[in-house]
Amino acid sequence: MAPPLLLLSDIHVRFGATQLLAGAELQLGAQERLALVGRNGSGKSTLLKIAAGLIEADQGGRFAQPGATIRYLGQEPSLAGFASVEDYVTDGLAPGDEVARAFSLMGKLGLRTDQVPEQLSGGEARRAALARVLAADPDILLLDEPTNHLDLLAIEWLEAHLRNCRSALVLISHDRRFLQTLSRATLWLDRGTTRRLDQGFAAFEDWRDRVLEEEELAQHKLARKIAAEEHWMRYGVTARRKRNVRRVAELASLREARRTALRAVGSVRLAAADAAGSGSVVVEARQLAKSYDGRSVVKEVNLRILRRDRIAIIGRNGSGKTTLIRLLTKEIAADSGEVRLGASLAMAVLDQTRQDLDPDASLAEVLTGGHGEHVAVGDQMRHVISYMQDFLFAPEQARQPVRVLSGGERARLLLAKALARPSNFLVLDEPTNDLDLETLDLLEDMLASYPGTVLVVSHDRDFLDRVATATLVAEGDGRFTEYAGGYSDMLAQRGHGLIAAAQDPPRAARPAAEKPRNTSAKLSFKDKHALETLPDRIASLEREIAALQRELGDGGLYARDSQRFAAVSKALASLAAERDAAEERWLELELRREELEG
């Protein structure tokens, strides 16, 4: 077996009175894809920083293969001190790295090289940070929440890029679909220690639940008390599984109702609104339009949202999603068209900016409004401690000020506050940001049992599949198309994702004045020759790569001949890069050939 590229052993870290890491381990081999998972505050980001060499552990060892290049992407990358995006991205290159690769990545990520870092949005700053770490084509990529602030278009591009890159990966992400696609092994950080599963994230949650059930049974037999902060997780193992069965059945029923409504003729649906029972129609929009500086942001949108609908809005950043929500809730006025809100509508909005939280207020004061010890949740009065525990807060945190909370805990507190307000219409803007997987489960359960209507903007594909009854896709130019079901349902009906849509819009959506294709154009002789010969060259490279991988698989090679090991590793990296370039070139030529042939 080849020696690891990166090894952390017996890592201990203490912050004040809290023992964050207590014997954590991490091992990463060449081209391995590892998902690092655990609850908010469990120490995942700390462990990743130790792996990157940015901080030192109180105790334990760190080994990185000599000569191995490592790049780290933190949750909040800083671009301070750089005059432009180009300066920031190219500053991350080492001698010998390809500058052209950096410029290519900036282009693919939709960045202008002359953009000033201080003027970048959160999504643009995240894309610049990604370009910086990817441009070096490192041996090891350590990525902490790489999809934060990215739209679906950028997430799908990043997913495809990482799937084809040669780097070994360690990924921290709340995006289940992202982890399922990319991971081949899973490291679970739980109560300071790590457990490893040599399967991707898709197999993790069932495995985790089995581990917790076995542990709880063992603790019960020994008459040992379960730690208070772990109670919900253990209780949720069996209860969550029962709720999931009910939730899936109810969601299927709601989606079928939405699908039936969408089959109806538009004029009939609009005419039926006046005859609808009181409160059954929550929002109705007719020919809704809004422009800014002559650019159409929302154009001729017709939409009816009924009680119990869960409507998701997706699309690239800047495509008008937030504007549409503000129009539908009458926060802003439309240029044309009309919006009608249902009777007795009580709206609650999840403020993802966290500006609604007083940093000096305690958690109990935030939830009770500073009055008493109880929270009004629907038609019930709940003690604030009991309600906090529903959102994974320990009782002793009730008197803690908001300022000491982590980003994930603040997101959880905002969620608790929003769901405690009397409401029958929830508006959630990116509710999954900074939430761990257990809290996501909690949110999905609560939305499933919520008796009102939900309007949500999210880029989390798995979350949309578990929650949405219909999906509105921002097509560009202010147009929105509705599909019954969640993200996967949308893909099945649409036939492609957002990347395909951006590269090749549906014919009906093309401008009327579009010029016809030049069908007389042909591939050059050189391109034809490359198209014919590249598959053989790729197959040859694959055979050479397989031979070198077999040689590296000899566990004694490094001990016998470290120079040979280094030479083989270098040759393997070179051949892998050549293969990737050949595959990209062939794909580019094949797409061009298909386009020219109509």
The helix-and-strand class reads: alpha/beta
What's the level 1 CATH class of the largest domain?
Alpha Beta
First and last CA, distance? 50 Å
How much of the sequence lies in strands comes to: 15-25%
Record field, number of beta strands? 20
Could you name the CATH homologous superfamily of the largest domain?
Answer: P-loop containing nucleotide triphosphate hydrolases
Helical content, roughly?
A: 40-55%
Describe the biggest sheet? 6 strands, mixed
Give a written overview of the molecule:
The structure is a single chain. The protein has 598 residues and is α/β, with parallel strands linked by helices. It folds into three domains: 6-213, 3-Layer(aba) Sandwich (Rossmann fold); 251-509, Rossmann fold (3-Layer(aba) Sandwich); 525-596, Orthogonal Bundle (Helix Hairpins). The chain has 20 helices and 20 strands. The strands form five sheets. The chain has a six-stranded mixed beta sheet, sandwiched between helices. Strands 14-17-18-12-19-20 form a six-stranded mixed beta sheet, sandwiched between helices. Helix 14 (437-449) links the parallel strand 17 and strand 18. Helix 8 crosses helix 14 and helix 18 (525-552) runs antiparallel to helix 20. The longest helix has 35 residues, at 562-596. The protein is globular, with a radius of gyration of 26 Å.
